[in-house]
Design brief:
Elements lengths: L3 H13 L6 E5 L5 H13 L2 E6 L12 E5 L5 H6 L5 E6 L5 H11 L3 E10 L15 H19 L5 E6 L5 E6 L18 H14 L1
Parallel strand pairs: 1-2, 1-4, 2-3, 4-5
Antiparallel strand pairs: 5-7, 6-7
Helix pairs in contact: 4-5
C-alpha cells in the first residue's frame, strides 16, 4: 500500500495543480500534511485556503493565504459565513462515518463551483481487513459504508458529477462537479445479490463444482 502523501500527490494535487487563484475548503487538519501542500499551491497559484478543525491548529502556518476556522465541520451556516465566494476544491478528511460524510457532501455541494473538485479521504476498507497488518474494525466497517454511500449518491446523480476512486493507501474518492443542478436525494440501492434467482445460481454452481 502507498502512503498518504503519495496518494494525495498522485490523485489530488496532480488534478488541481494548474487551477489559478483556487479557493479551497479543507475539513480536517490533524498534523497539517495536506494543509501545507494546499498552501504551497496557493502561494504559487495565488489562491486561498480555509481549514476547519475542532482542535486549535492555528500554529500550522502563518501564511496570509490561510484562514483557520476552529469549529465542527457540520456547523454549516457558520463555516459558510467565513468563506468568500464559491470554492474550487473541497477536501473532506474528518470523521469517517458514512452518515457524517454524506451530510457534509450534501451541505457543502452547492458551495463548489461548476467544474470544481470534491475529494473524500478514507473510502477503502482493504487495508483494514483481518489479513492485513493494519487490521482495524472501525476503519474497515466505516470505510466500506462510506464507499457504498457514495455509490448510492452517484447512482441518483450521475448527470451532476463524475465519480472515480483511488484505492491507494486508505483510498480517495475523486468527484468533479459537472453543473449547477441541485443534488437528488439518494436511496438504498436494490441489489440482485440476495434474490432467489441468485441463490439458485449459487446452488447450481456448487452442484457443477461437485
Amino acid at each position: 500500500m502507498h502512503n498518504y502523501e503519495e496518494k494525495i500527490n498522485k490523485n489530488l494535487f496532480a488534478l488541481i495543480k494548474d487551477i489559478q487563484k483556487p479557493n479551497i475548503l479543507e475539513l480536517g487538519v490533524q498534523e497539517g500534511v495536506s494543509t501545507k501542500k494546499f498552501l504551497d499551491l496557493c502561494e504559487v497559484n495565488r489562491g486561498f485556503l480555509y481549514s476547519v478543525d475542532i482542535v486549535d491548529c492555528n500554529n500550522v502556518s502563518s501564511s496570509k493565504r490561510w484562514k483557520f476556522i476552529k469549529s465542527r465541520d457540520d456547523n454549516f451556516s457558520y463555516i459558510k459565513s467565513q468563506i468568500t465566494g464559491q470554492i474550487d476544491i473541497l477536501f473532506i478528511d474528518t470523521l469517517h462515518e458514512a452518515k457524517h460524510v454524506k451530510n457534509l457532501f450534501y451541505n457543502y455541494y452547492d458551495l463548489v463551483k461548476e467544474g470544481g473538485f470534491i475529494f473524500i479521504d478514507d473510502i477503502s476498507h482493504l487495508p483494514y481487513l483481518n489479513a492485513e497488518k493494519k487490521s482495524h474494525f472501525y476503519c474497515e466497517i466505516n470505510n466500506r459504508e462510506t464507499f457504498n454511500s457514495l455509490l448510492e449518491i452517484y447512482f441518483f446523480n450521475y448527470n451532476n458529477f463524475s465519480l472515480n476512486f483511488s484505492f491507494e493507501s486508505s483510498g480517495l474518492a475523486i468527484i468533479k462537479k459537472m453543473n449547477e443542478n441541485s443534488l437528488n436525494k439518494s436511496k438504498k440501492l436494490i441489489s440482485k445479490e440476495f434474490s432467489i434467482k441468485n441463490m439458485l445460481r449459487k446452488i447450481w454452481l456448487q452442484i457443477k463444482k461437485n
